[in-house]
Each structure stands twice: as structure tokens, then as C-alpha cells.
Amino acid sequence: MPATIRDVARASGVHISTVSRAFSAPQLVNPETRSKVLETAEKLGYRPNRAARALITGRTHNIGLIVADIANPFFPPLIKAAEREARHRDYHVFVADSNEDPAVEEELVRALAKQVDGILLVSPRLANSIIEGLSREAALVVVNRQVPGLPSVVMDVSQGARSAIEHLAELGHRSIGYLGGPRGSWTNREIRRAATAAARTLGGPGDPVEVTALGPNAPTGDGGLIAAEQVHRAGFTAVLAYNDLMAIGLIEGLATLGVRVPQDVSVVGIDDIALSRLTRPGLTTVANPTAAAGRAAVDMLLQHGDDRRTTGQITLATELVIRDSTGPGPQGNADPG
Amino acid sequence: MPATIRDVARASGVHISTVSRAFSAPQLVNPETRSKVLETAEKLGYRPNRAARALITGRTHNIGLIVADIANPFFPPLIKAAEREARHRDYHVFVADSNEDPAVEEELVRALAKQVDGILLVSPRLANSIIEGLSREAALVVVNRQVPGLPSVVMDVSQGARSAIEHLAELGHRSIGYLGGPRGSWTNREIRRAATAAARTLGGPGDPVEVTALGPNAPTGDGGLIAAEQVHRAGFTAVLAYNDLMAIGLIEGLATLGVRVPQDVSVVGIDDIALSRLTRPGLTTVANPTAAAGRAAVDMLLQHGDDRRTTGQITLATELVIRDSTGPGPQGNADPG
DNA sequence: CTGAAAGCGCTAACAT
DNA sequence: ATGTTAGCGCTTTCAG
Straight-line distance from CA A140 to C1' C15, in Å? Predict the structure, then answer.
């Protein structure tokens, strides 16, 4: 049986409200009384019960973090950074995994809403209208997506996709595939759009750069592996993948088909997960500042306190990291068979 | 302002205790009354406030999960499985990252203790005596370690290490290095001990198998990378690493030194993280059932309710997965068992 | 600066 | 089967 505020009050000879103040409003209590109280509290191993405190203050000092798939290496650095940032502000984090299922995602928000001061929705698969509805049940910050009227943190995938296509075009590639991710992904749409748009501004007259989209695919190594044959048949000389996992799976699949990377086909990923510098060939990829995004999201959530309709949008820069999976394209050949 | 039990009571014309029972003791209430209550509750979007409930029942329906490093790919599958299992039992999970720091770990247990019904301590770096002390503040289940008197879930790393050494010995390796993990790791000690013991039972008379331990090292890709030169100088023909990450880092480091795997040196990892079948060469490794461990740990924690001194110990089998990072040793024995 | 009293939302005896 | 009452541990007026 843990010590309660009453035990501390009795042991230090003051009223419970004084003990309460010693913890939550130090300036309202005599320094001597305060230190005496804190000392007894320490001795008894007393810690204020947050549930009781929450009941009256309305603030739980907890936040929720909902991700599509904890096991996808994109998320852990973000989770880690968010948890760390939250803890430094004396918040605890509920982590929940929707398993890529929008319905589960929605239910998780509802289930967590009462227990937290706000929820971070990372890479949500939900429709905008539903997210807007949910934002009335809990303060929401959306990561990796933009929803009108809601605070969000995104990484600049458009710019990243553009850099990737520019890099490939400079290497001489003219027929580029975009290996798309899951249906309903905001990021997927942004990448496709930006990559296609970038292609139009590149290449000379009579020497167009073409980007062709494939998908949807599962955003996993297997998703890339399975797509290898399709990529091979399509005859692209370079491929941009929705994420690193798919890119690595693709490279693996291509190897099985006797296609070498980067000699025969160049491959670019997105994310720069830890793994990407450990594979061979090292993966050329668009680095996403996931840890910074996690911190920024917690920041936004906690900064604005109770005011749920902040519309702040943060965009974090991405950066192309060139490793060994990209190389020169076919010279003087705009459209290889 | 979310609906409270009082709103539901008023709207459905019953007393609040009836509403309470409709949710937490359905058999005590008239089915018709119950369905009417649930209907109004649904309409008002009412959800019982868990903090208020916890205050009186003493059960929060939350559990804590403390890991050394969320970003280490060993943990996410375990976290994911534990969270899923917990949610199916209507529990939410606080995830916290100790950053490999025992002091942080201890503080996390203390901070979480009041808010949860129990805590899963995964790969704890804390001394036994401290863990035992903490077990008085919260129900604890220890994963990846055994602590006298506490329930625990471990994967059979001893058997795994033995299989690995046997595999290498059969391939003809006689001088094997063990690339150790972090200081204070229970798993590290177990592996070292089992590998050394296995070596003694192998090899013929006048043909001993030797296992030499190196370390401690950081349990990361960099840890393995940095150790490559030391491994090379020591002249081992095969190496068992504390985990896959280190094994992959080691392979990378050896490649830099012009040492080929498996032609010049064989490497075996432990864990079978997702990454290990995506690298080249594919990593031979001891597969750890991390997801099963996560589920089992939640199971143990919730099964025993309030009785904190269960001493159940679960050991989950491991399995050697042979891929391409191991090959014949200097004796040229190409075809094992 | 400290104490007294009320009450957050809910459950658990105890009545009826 | 339902209502009444007390109170979980804490914060927050309001007095003094």
C-alpha cells in the first residue's frame, strides 16, 4: 500500500492541502514547511497519484501516440524521440499500433481520448472528415500528413522526391518508375505528385524524363520484393521507392532476376532508416528527420495547452543521401525498351 | 466537455449506480434497463473515465513497458506484440525508453508504478537487488533475464548459442570468437557461458574447439563495425555476435578490411531481426521469438492479478536459421550434418 | 501562509 | 433489480 497525501500530512504535522501545495504550488507555502513536507514525503516514498490529480485538474500528463506499425523501422526513432521529449516535460506516452487499419486507428483515438491530454497521429490512414471529427474528442497533432484546421508536422517529401528525380535525371536516366506505397497514404500521393511534376521540368526538348507510377504496394520489404518482376518487365532504368524497406526488398528481388543495382537499374529509397547504410549496395535515399518530427509534434501538442484549434504546420527539410544504389543511366538513350 | 456517468443517468432516467453496473457488472442489472442505458450512453458518446474508476478499484487497466532502446530493431516486434495482446484484454500500454541507462530504468519504474497495474521490464540492466526492491512498488515481469523470485520470460539463448557453436564446429571451425554485448547484460553472460561450454563438448581429442570472448561492445551496428579490426587481428575463422545488428556491422567492417564473409570468416548473429534476411550475405542467426515473448509477458503480468510474488519462469525455444554468412572452415568440411 | 470543506467521476457496500 | 451513501486521492475555493 503506497503512501498517500494523508500519510504525508500526518507524518509532517500539517494539513493535506499544505502537502498538496508543497508539490503543485510551491510558492504558496513557507519554504521551511515545504522542505519538511518534501522530506517526509521522500522518506515515505510518496508520489502524488496522477489519476486522482487528473480527476480534478483535467490534465492527465499523458499523451497518446498512434502509429501504423511499430515494427516498421521508420517509426521507432520517431517514437523514441517523442517519448523522450514527453518525459522531459513530465509526460508519459501511451503507444498504440493500428496495424495499418484505419478502423483500429479511429477506435484507438476514442479509447485513449479520456486518458490523455492529446494524441499524436502518425501517418494516419483515416479520411480527413473522420480526423476532423476525432479532433473534437481529443487534442490532435497529425504527423506525416496535413489536415485542414489541424496542427501538423510533415517532412518535406515533395522536395525530397524532387531531389531524387533530379539526381536520377542528372545521371542520365529517362525512364523512371515510382514504386508506390499503400492506398490512402497522404505521403504516397505527395511523392507521386512531386516526382511526376519534377520530371516535367527536367530533360531537354525531345529528351523527356518520364516517371511512371506503380502500385499500390505494401510498404514493406516484401512489397518491394514482389514488385521486382513488374519493375523489370517495365524496363525502367531507375526506380524511386515509397520507402527504404521497399527499395531494399526491390534490390533483393532484382538480384534474384539477375538484375544488378546500380549497374542495370538504379534504386532510390525514402526515409534513411538505420538499415540503409548497412546493406550492400548502400542505399541512396531521401533522409527524413523522423526524430526531429517526433520532438516537434510533442512540442506542438503540449505548447498549446487546451486550445485545440491551432493550425500551426511545421515542415521539416529532407535531404538526399547518395550512396551506392544509384549510377549512370543509359547514355544517349531516352527510352530504353 | 465529455459526457459523465451522471449525464447518462439523467438522460436514461436511472440512478448513476445503475449506469455504473450496466458497464461493470452487467449481470446485476435488468437486460432492458441495461440496453436502454447503453443506448443513451452510445448516443451521448459516453465512455467511463478510467482514472476515476482506477481511483476506487485500484486497477488502472494500464501496463508499463520499459525497454533499453526502442530504436534497436530487436524491440519493436516485442513492443508491438505486447501492445496488441494488452489491448485485446482492454489494457493500454505506456512505452518508455531507458536509453540503456540503468538509473533511468529505475526512475521509470518508480514514475510509472502508480499509474499501471504492472510493468514489463525488458532486458533490464539493473542489479538483481534493485529489481527486487522495485518489485515492491509495482508488479513486475522481467523479460530476457531471470531474477530470483520474480516471474520472467526468457528466450533460450543458451540453447541458441550452443546450436550456433555446433553449426560452426561442424563446418570445421576451431577458432571462434564471441563478439560480446554490453556490460551488465544478463543475456550476454548467458551466451558467453553457453558458447564456451558448448565448445568444450565439441571437437575431437587433439582437435579442440575454442571460443574466445571479446567485449564489452555497444549492441549496435557501430559496435560490430568498430570491432572488425580486432576480430581480424585475432585470426578467428568464425564469429558469433551478441546480436544481429553487431553481426551486420561486423560483416560491413570486415568487408572494408578486405575480409569476405563467409569465404574468409563465418559470422552468426542472434535475434533474426527483419533486416537479417535482407542483407547480403543473408545472415545466419539464432532466431528469437520476440513477439511470442511479448505476448507471454503480458499474459503473465495480467494473469496473476494482484499476487505479486509469482515465480513462474517461461523459457521460449530459439532456432538456428542458416543463411549465407556461414561457410566451411579451414578444414574444408563443406557439408554439415 | 495554512486549514476546512467541497467535489472531480466513479464503484461498492448496504438498503430496499 | 435499483437507489443511497460513502469515499478512492487529490486540488481548489474560501476562511482565517
Answer: 46
Sheet holding B238-241, edge to edge: B210-214, B175-179, B238-241, B266-271, B284-287, B319-321
| Positions in chain C where some atom is under 7 Å from a protein CB | 1-5, 7-13
Measured between beta carbons, which residues in chain A are less than 8 angstroms from residue B70? 76-77, 79-80, 83
Between CA A57 and C1' D13 the distance (Å) reads 13
Does the C-beta of A6 come within 7 A of strand D?
yes
| B251-CA/D13-C1' distance, Å | 67
Asked if A62-154+290-315 and A157-288 have one fold, the answer is yes
Residue B295 is which amino acid?
A: R
pLDDT in tens, chain B (337 residues): 689 999 999 999 999 999 999 999 999 999 999 999 999 999 999 999 999 999 999 999 999 999 999 999 999 999 999 999 999 999 999 999 999 999 999 999 999 999 999 999 999 999 999 999 999 999 999 999 999 999 999 999 999 999 999 999 999 999 999 999 998 899 999 999 999 999 999 988 889 999 999 989 999 999 999 999 999 999 999 999 999 999 999 999 999 999 999 999 999 999 999 889 888 899 999 999 999 999 999 999 998 554 444 568 999 999 999 999 999 998 554 444 4
Show residues of chain B in contact with A112, CB under 8 Å.
92
Q: Taken in order B324, B187, B72, A63, is the CA torsion positive or negative?
A: positive
B226 in contact with A, Cβ within 8 Å: no
The fold adopted by the segment(s) A5-57 is: 434 Repressor (Amino-terminal Domain) (1.10.260)
Count of C-beta atoms within a 10 Å radius of residue A305:
12
What number does CATH give the domain B62-154+290-315? 3.40.50.2300
Q: What is the CA radius of gyration of chain B?
A: 25
DSSP H or E run through A269: strand A266-271
The pTM of the full predicted model, rounded to 2 decimals, is 0.92
